[in-house]
């Protein structure tokens, strides 16, 4: 067990290093850099000689390998550097932004899970055939709704037309309602789809007929027999959906004017802010790896048949 | 949600009417202790009594529903229903229109929507409008420029400066009763310290020189209330420069800040002597400007004196256009900046007013890279100008807030002279000129000369309104006469970089804002923005333009500067170096209950004179 975890953590470090290096060189070889994005702006009116001077003073004119080495050793020693756009320290930016995004993504994910389970149960065990059909049609519909569109529509209807939730001057709780709803819809869709198909699959297996023949009710069947077996594929998808959550955060945080990692990403991309982008990529990669590690460790907990394999 | 209470939130504009203005922003409008409701046998009545209050603040449909619901409930139902009820009440109460507000009050909080977060509060870099919105309201200047007449008036200086004959020495007498918001005094030493930093910059801290200050040598304290600034060359634009936000006066401690200290997250540490102080900041999303009670040194010429009339300004960043417009339309905000031309109609229909403030500077336009082989000859440049129907462009994409340009400079800029005869739409003349220049029609309709296609690339001016759309419309018009115009793709960093290379970008779309004669030099001189890339390849292509521009920035006599500016505009127009489109405004959406909203000379918002009427 522990050797498995250690091996996975080793792999994770390798993934992080590769992500870091790839981001660094990709950003480095794009035309333009953070210095030109900021100081080359026509609104500042600096001459190209002055911009070159600033670049030299920021060390941005050094050879690429020197810069890479400095950035890498900085990361390894916990110094994430300073934003090229604003001069703020990246670690302090992250600590301000993280809780906001954590709250948003967590609420969205929980909402998505609730939504997915509702769709899955009604579409498989629902009482009416028409309801089951409608519910089955929902995931393909949901998955094709773009987050930005949904977010704008939600704001228009619930805030501007009905006046139910303010967008400007909202409390923390109010500010979570619409954005998490917007993110949760496209996340819920694949989750629901997988749940529906695995519930279908489990239900068609012979043991279900046996349990039913013994007189089990639908509820008993669902909770005791079907759900546990149907959860595994959904769990895998849930782990992979983290990327969607981050993408959703980028869009909704910008639309709703929330601060957070998503907003930071949008700004950093627009300004070619390398230190910030590096930190965000490494952070997202680390979270992604961690979440999938947790998912892998959960398999044997949910399914006794998998327990032996893990120990090998 | 507070446990044990029903809490009803309102929007800021609503709250203004419902509570004493001094209350902090996050407080609810109406708090009903739950124990009253759940323990009191007359619970229904309690709720019912509070309903009229809600009725005022929300949409009647929902209130009606709530009333019916409450009346049907028994006390035990009520207890169960409380969490649900509380949640829905909180939501219901959040609607409301501006016209439901209570009695007029002095004070109150203005909610101002900004398009982007500010990126630095170092005054010389405060030209970016989100930065300017902070600096213009927290920092005073030596002189005040009347935004209407563009005349200079005393502010922190008690009089206009004494200037020596060749404009290399400026002597100011300053007020002795001004304090910074941290309590320190604004002294002669402090004023010199300000200008030494802005005029010289500090490369160790990567703090740049102010673009507005040319040829600065050093500042000198003559006595407690007199300072003198020395220049290496004549600097007649300095008096105006001392009135811009780029010369906003900051406390000694603030001037020791590093680049990072001026960055986002530190707004509350930027100490000025202005009518407002940054009281709170949430990184990247909002900040609050609080009025200074003891502010008593407004420019004498300003209509309002003493402290600001409103208590605070809540500045909220709403990057998404539709959200900014919608918030204003639905009454959740009072003023919004950057109203796009296509949104003006919707706002006007909602009752808000559209206020467009000219930037009184170099117009939004195309600048030709005069050293490039295609654009070297006059005929080709003239042909491009005559092939563009600027009125059609404006009609398609813009509104009346965007006046047609009649010169490289805006008609309300200092030194303006009408050059519209050079910018007439005449496609036949354009074709003639192209043929004179040797451009023959190619197989696909695009002209060619010695095997070279008449193809040009223009950058997308990200900060300018509808730049990409404008280029698209112009490209269609140019295609009619056989010129191919392409839009440079790429993000801001890439555009800034590639715009410096005439092989990649032959036409540069831009504008610049500063209300002084110098502004035209800023835009076109090879040592400043150099938008024509005059001399990108070591030698200056057109030395005559250079010397005309230098005259504007160095002749000590104002009348001579006017003449020089006129000459430069005429030269730019006659030689077809630039194609100006419109006088670029800053467009604000303002709710009718906001009175006295104004801007400084190039349209950055001033909240000092604002009052809220209901």
Automatic annotation (TrEMBL), chain A:
Ranges for domain ABC transmembrane type-1: 98-299
InterPro entries: BPD_transp_1_N (IPR045621), MetI-like (IPR000515), MetI-like_sf (IPR035906)
Superkingdom per UniProt: Bacteria
Chief location of this protein within or outside the cell: membrane
Cellular localisation: Cell membrane
Keywords noted in UniProt: Cell membrane, Membrane, Transmembrane, Transmembrane helix, Transport
SUPFAM superfamilies: MetI-like
A single cellular component GO annotation: plasma membrane
Transmembrane helix recorded as keyword: yes
Entry similarity comment: Belongs to the binding-protein-dependent transport system permease family.
Name recorded for this polypeptide: ABC transporter permease
Organism listed in the record: Nesterenkonia salmonea
Organism lineage: Bacteria, Bacillati, Actinomycetota, Actinomycetes, Micrococcales
């Amino acid at each position: 067990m522990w050797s498995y975890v250690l091996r996975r953590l080793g792999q994770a470090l390798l993934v992080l290093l590769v992500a870091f290096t790839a981001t660094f060189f990709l950003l480095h070889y794009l035309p333009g850099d953070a210095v030109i994005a900021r100081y080359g702006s026509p609104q500042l009116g600096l001459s190209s000689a002055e911009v070159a001077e600033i670049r030299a003073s920021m060390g941005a004119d050094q050879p690429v390998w020197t810069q890479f080495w400095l950035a890498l050793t900085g990361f390894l020693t916990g110094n994430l550097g300073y934003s090229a756009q604003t001069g703020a320290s990246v670690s302090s930016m992250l600590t301000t932004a993280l809780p906001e995004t954590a709250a948003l993504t967590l609420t969205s994910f929980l909402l998505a899970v609730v939504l997915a389970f509702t769709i899955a149960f009604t579409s498989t065990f629902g009482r009416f055939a028409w309801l089951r059909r409608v519910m089955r049609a929902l995931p393909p519909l949901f998955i094709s709704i773009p987050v930005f569109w949904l977010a704008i529509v939600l704001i228009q209807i619930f805030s501007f037309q009905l006046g139910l939730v303010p967008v400007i001057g909202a409390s923390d709780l109010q500010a979570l309602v619409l954005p998490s709803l917007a993110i949760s819809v496209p996340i819920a869709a694949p989750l629901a789809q997988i749940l529906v198909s695995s519930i279908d699959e489990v239900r068609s297996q012979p043991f279900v007929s046996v349990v039913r023949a013994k007189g089990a009710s639908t509820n008993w069947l669902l909770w005791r027999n079907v759900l546990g077996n149907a959860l595994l594929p959904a769990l895998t998808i849930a782990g992979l959906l983290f990327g969607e959550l981050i993408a959703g955060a980028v869009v909704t945080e910008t639309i709703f004017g929330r601060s957070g990692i998503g907003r930071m990403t949008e700004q950093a991309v627009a300004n070619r802010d390398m230190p910030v982008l590096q930190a965000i990529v490494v952070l997202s990669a680390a979270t992604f790896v961690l979440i999938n590690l947790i998912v892998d460790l959960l398999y044997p907990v949910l399914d006794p048949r998998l327990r032996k394999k893990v120990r090998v | 949600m507070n446990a044990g209470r029903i809490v009803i939130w309102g929007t800021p504009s609503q709250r203004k009417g419902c509570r004493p203005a001094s209350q902090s922003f996050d407080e609810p409008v109406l708090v009903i202790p739950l124990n009253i409701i759940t323990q009191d046998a007359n619970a229904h009545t309690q709720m019912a009594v509070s309903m009229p209050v809600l009725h005022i603040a929300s949409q009647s449909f929902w209130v009606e529903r709530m009333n019916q619901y409450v009346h049907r409930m028994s006390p035990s139902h009520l207890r169960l229903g409380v969490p649900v009820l509380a949640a829905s009440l909180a939501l219901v109460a959040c609607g409301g229109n501006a016209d439901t507000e209570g009695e007029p009050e002095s004070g109150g909080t203005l909610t101002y929507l900004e398009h982007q977060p500010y990126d630095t509060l170092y005054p010389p870099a405060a030209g970016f409008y989100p930065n300017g919105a902070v600096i213009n309201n927290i920092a005073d200047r030596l002189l005040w420029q009347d935004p209407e007449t563009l005349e200079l008036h005393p502010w922190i200086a008690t009089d206009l400066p004494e200037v020596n004959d060749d404009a290399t020495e400026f002597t100011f007498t300053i007020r002795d009763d001004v304090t910074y918001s941290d309590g320190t005094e604004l002294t002669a030493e402090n004023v010199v310290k300000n200008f030494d930093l802005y005029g010289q910059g500090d490369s160790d801290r990567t703090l740049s020189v102010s673009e507005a200050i040319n040829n600065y040598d050093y500042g000198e304290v003559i006595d407690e209330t007199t300072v003198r600034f020395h220049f290496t060359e004549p600097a007649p634009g300095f008096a105006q420069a001392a009135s811009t936000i780029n010369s906003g006066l900051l406390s000694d401690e603030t001037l020791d800040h590093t680049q990072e200290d001026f960055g986002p997250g530190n707004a509350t540490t930027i100490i000025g002597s202005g009518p407002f102080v940054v009281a709170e900041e949430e990184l990247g999303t909002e900040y609050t400007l609080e009025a200074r009670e003891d502010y008593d040194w407004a420019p004498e010429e300003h209509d309002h004196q003493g402290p600001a009339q409103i208590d605070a300004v809540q500045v909220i960043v709403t990057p998404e256009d539709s959200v900014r417009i919608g918030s204003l339309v639905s009454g959740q905000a009072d003023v919004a900046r950057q109203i796009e031309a296509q949104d003006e109609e919707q706002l006007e229909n909602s009752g808000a007013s559209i206020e467009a403030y000219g930037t009184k500077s170099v117009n939004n336009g195309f600048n030709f890279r005069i050293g490039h082989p295609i654009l070297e000859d006059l005929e080709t440049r003239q042909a491009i100008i005559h092939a563009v129907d600027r009125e059609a462009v404006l009609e398609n994409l813009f509104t009346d807030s965007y006046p047609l340009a009649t010169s490289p400079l805006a008609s309300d800029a200092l030194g303006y002279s009408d050059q519209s005869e050079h910018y007439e739409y005449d496609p036949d003349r354009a074709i003639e000129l192209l043929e004179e220049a040797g451009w023959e029609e190619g197989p696909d309709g695009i002209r060619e000369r010695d095997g070279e296609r008449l193809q040009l690339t223009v950058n997308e001016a990200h900060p300018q309104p509808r730049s990409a759309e404008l280029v698209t419309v112009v490209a269609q018009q140019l295609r009619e006469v056989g010129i191919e115009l392409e839009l440079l793709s790429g993000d801001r960093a890439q555009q800034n970089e590639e715009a410096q290379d005439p092989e990649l970008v032959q036409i540069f779309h831009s504008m610049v804002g500063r209300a002084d004669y110098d502004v035209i030099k800023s835009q076109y001189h090879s040592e400043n923005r150099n938008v024509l890339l005059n001399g990108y390849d070591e030698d200056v292509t057109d030395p005559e333009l250079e010397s005309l521009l230098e005259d504007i920035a160095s002749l000590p006599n104002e009348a001579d500067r006017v003449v020089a500016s006129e000459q430069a505009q005429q030269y730019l127009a006659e030689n077809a170096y630039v194609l100006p489109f419109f006088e670029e405004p800053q467009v604000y959406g303002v709710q009718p209950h906001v009175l006295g909203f104004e801007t400084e000379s190039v349209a950055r918002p001033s909240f000092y004179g604002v009052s809220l009427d209901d």
